[in-house]
Write a structure and sequence with these properties.
The structure is a homodimer of 238-residue chains. Chain A has a single domain, classed as 3-Layer(aba) Sandwich (Rossmann fold). Chain A has seven helices and eleven strands. Helix content of chain A is 26%, strand content 21%. Chains A, B: It is found in: Cytoplasm.
């Protein structure tokens, strides 16, 4: 299995700039061999502005960026990509566009079979998993399916948020929402990635990186906390 | 137009019991003519327990409750209902079950044509509008459509929450999420109902009730605040 993934909870950490908190990991992940990264800006409305943001940041790290929407044939752009980065925004809009542009299968193939490195942040991390069933986003558009690219056999909840005991708000907590997901049959585990954390997958090895812990929710079991540096490879064989 | 609706933001307000904050409005809304209310518990996993909760509360207000899942034919139960109450929980699970039980059209017909009073809270308020595109819930199941019962020509965001300026969390604010919805073409207005507020619709008259203000988001316009008691009838003719 050639799979190489960097799945980031959030693109911007409070008090720092776009992708600052994970830039060392990005440089290490793409490494010396990658010169150009194919950026997928489908999760935000203004694709040009979003691509400029990514391009400017990646330039400081020594990588060129091509926007997939700038290509005349997006499937061909995926076929030729050295590396792929799907940015955050609205997960429903992102997945709908991935299906409309018929790149879901091609991205899966390139990453799992050809070993093309895949980075996602937030919504881009959601779509790398089994399904978008555990996104936090508002369902502003209707995608043809909630099934996602499926680069790992579990789900992620990015921007995972602990309940605030002082809150007077009565909407469900994040934990309650994930528990409701697990009331449904045959639902996969959900890794709650707090802001500041990310998952590095290399082949069949998965490692938690970043500065915050992650919380793993498994159907019918108590949730478990993992610290940065933890080996989470067992998630890949469930 | 015989339509009569009571659309509540939330079933439980911090520090009080189930439906306590709106019980006077519930009594006034159903009135002396209604003896039995058909309760739709589809939004929660345990339908029996949920129906007991609703039944116990409504008994104190002088109404009997029938759970729609207790009927052998849910469509027939809707046809015979004197009044309908759809409770909160997960909006995706609720809408999927409404479609599976083929009651979406029948509820619309009974409410709009026969004048059967409809009460919703939280998810039950979402499904009364144009679509569930502005729910806060996690998409734990995939409904056949996001189109909802359509008892009013706009959308509602229940549990509307103002941004917390002291928060270090970088997930989108509620306002940002609704703005993303309005980046999509032909999207209806969204009434953000804060916890403690509700909308009473009688024919072509809509009035904001409760103890908190509501915020109206309209595509391409600045959002506007409305105080309890405001006449929002203009929303019904958009």
């Amino acid at each position: 299995m050639k799979r190489r993934l960097l799945l980031v909870s959030n693109s911007t950490l409070h008090g720092s700039g776009y992708l600052d908190h994970c830039q060392t990991h990005i440089s290490d992940f793409f490494g010396k061999d990658v010169k150009r990264v194919l950026f997928v800006p489908y999760a935000l409305h203004d694709r040009d502005a979003y691509t400029k943001t990514a391009r400017d940041k990646f330039k400081t790290l020594g990588f060129e960026v091509d926007g997939i929407h700038e290509a005349s044939d997006p499937v061909d752009a995926v076929r030729k990509a050295e590396a792929i980065f799907i940015g955050g925004g609205n997960t429903f809009r992102l997945l709908k566009s991935l299906y409309e542009n018929q790149v879901v299968t091609e991205i899966r193939k390139r990453v799992l079979e050809d070993g093309v490195p895949y980075m996602g942040s937030s919504a881009g991390t959601n779509v790398a998993t089994v399904s978008i069933n555990t996104t936090n986003d508002m369902p502003i558009v209707y995608p043809p399916s909630f099934c996602a690219i499926g680069l790992v056999p579990f789900n992620i909840n990015p921007h995972y948020l602990d309940a605030d005991p002082s809150s007077r708000h009565m909407g469900e907590t994040r934990e309650q929402r994930i528990t409701q997901f697990h009331e449904e049959p045959d639902t996969p585990s959900v890794l709650g990635l707090r802001e500041g954390s990310m998952l590095l997958v290399e082949g069949n090895k998965a490692t938690l990186l970043g500065t915050t812990r992650a919380r793993l929710f498994t159907r019918g079991k108590h949730s478990v906390e993992y610290s940065p540096g933890s080996d989470l490879s067992f998630l890949l064989t469930q």
